[in-house]
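I have been asked to look over a protein record a colleague put together. The record follows directly below this note.
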Amino acid sequence: MNIDFLQTPIGKLEIKASETGVHSILFVDSQPEKVSPSNLTDEACRQLNEYFNGKRRTFDLPLAAKGTDFQQRVWQALSTIPFGDTVSYAYIANAIGKPAAARAVGAANGKNPLSIVVPCHRIIGANGNLTGYAGGLERKAYLLNLEQA
């Protein structure tokens, strides 16, 4: 597994990738001294930098996150939310054909290992309020504001 790190305006991201694709992009507090970048982690860093600089709205990376079939369906649905838009858990539940599964969608959303690239930050509560985000609500607010600019 190749590992690299990217410092962003809202914290450090750890990017893990193999030959098959990017496995995870997660916020971390610390970084080991040794990294093992690859062409794919370099490309992920490049695309993420473009996103934070307002020059990228979608990502073009091979993804290889591991999860259950249900989680994969949720993450795929998250990937269809347009840049700058927000939707509810119920919207995603309907989109995957499981209208009664809004809570399960929330749980799958919380396990998304591909922060920003699979835009789980674009999910808000049915009442329009910000809801949980594994990276923290401050980061979620930053990302949503970045996309509104």
